[in-house]
Design a protein that fits this description.
By secondary structure, this protein is α/β, with parallel strands linked by helices. It is 30% helix and 19% strand. The chain has helices at residues 2-12, 20-36, 95-111, 130-139, 191-194, 231-242, 252-260, 276-281, 283-286, 314-321; strands at residues 48-50, 59-61, 85-91, 117-123, 141-146, 176-180, 184-186, 205-212, 215-227, 265-267, 274-275, 296-298. The protein starts with a helix and ends with a helix.
């Protein structure tokens, strides 16, 4: 019986039981409780657990059964969340994007003080090689393997896999997730951004205004996406996707999210998603900001691994090229 409760409840309280001493205390409390009640166990009643965050060590009712179920969609058993906030990205079998993710993740770890998990979401149908995972894990990334989410038939062929991003809404093991495309570079702290309370602002997601065709548009760019995971919201998104909803299919998941959250997004600001298109088409606006003040550079016009110092985006390319 003790092993049963330990197996079920330990993962649930994983963030509370941080030290070896607490782990021992947790097991001893369970053992003591089981032994003292061995002859009077009511199989119809809820078990009790110890709240190790309370110095009085009072007994709390066990969490409802549904709360003990998995709080994420990761298929791999080695996915073990450690923090309440996380930075996620998604990779497929394109090795170049792995290079981008490595530098992006290293930048997050270097500059951000808030305890976070770094997570790469990979598709079960397109697993990354062991060699690539060796590079990613060296930076601190954890693996989350997910199933593909079928895209509407009209979706641009090379972007159909992008709808897997919707899995992030189901990752309720986290309080906050910041999803960042792998063609970005983080050169400053993300503390303010990842600690933004979207609920307090009355919005569901945090993104920034987009530029298309060289001009500002009323839609947003989802290359940097802040959200608070919510299972009901995830289910709503999947239902909408399957409903035949019309959106800009050429924009894949970004087109879908713009249709769903057209009036429900918080502006996180240029500094948190400095779109390279602005450097080219809205240079006056770009130059109003110091390059060193930008938190996240988004290499939309030219992927950073293809950047050249003598090219049209030279100074911005050099940031990525010279980064460790």
């Amino acid at each position: 019986m003790v092993l049963f409760y330990l197996t079920i409840l330990y993962p649930y309280f994983g963030n509370s039981i941080s030290s070896e001493e607490q782990q021992i205390e947790f097991i001893e409390n369970l053992s003591s409780s089981a032994n003292s009640n061995n002859n009077s166990i009511d199989t119809n009643s809820s078990p009790q657990v110890v709240d190790l965050n309370n110095t009085s060590e009072h007994i709390l009712p066990a969490p409802p059964a549904e709360e003990l179920r998995t709080h994420h969609h990761c298929l791999n058993s080695d996915f073990v969340p450690k923090a309440s906030k996380a930075v996620w990205t998604m990779l497929n079998d394109n090795m170049a994007y792995t290079r981008g993710a490595v530098k992006m993740g290293r930048g997050v770890k270097t500059h951000t003080q808030t305890p976070i998990d770094l997570v790469v979401m990979e598709l079960q149908s397109k697993p990354l090689s062991d060699a690539l995972w060796k590079e990613l894990k060296a930076v601190g990334f954890m693996r989350c393997t997910v199933e593909s989410i079928p895209a509407p038939e009209k979706t641009r062929h090379d972007l159909k896999e992008k709808f897997a991003v919707l899995h992030v809404w189901a990752m309720t093991v986290y309080e906050t997730v910041l999803f960042i495309d792998a063609d970005t570079f983080v050169q400053n702290s993300l503390d303010d951004l990842i600690n933004t309370d979207l609920k307090a602002k009355g919005k569901t997601i945090g993104v920034t205004k987009d530029i298309r065709g060289g001009k500002w548009v009323e839609t947003f760019n989802s290359g940097v996406l802040l959200l608070h995971p919510d299972r009901q919201e995830h289910d709503r998104l999947i239902e909408l996707l399957r409903s035949g909803i019309q959106f800009e299919f050429i924009m894949s998941d970004q087109g879908f999210l713009n249709e769903v959250y057209a009036k429900d997004w918080h502006e996180i600001g240029f500094l948190n998603n400095a779109n390279l298109a602005l450097y080219r088409f809205q240079r006056e606006f770009w130059d109003q900001h110091k390059l060193e003040d930008i938190n996240i550079i988004h290499y939309t016009m030219q992927k950073p691994w293809k950047c050249q110092s003598k090219g049209p985006y030279g100074p911005i390319c050099d940031v990525w090229i010279n980064a460790p």
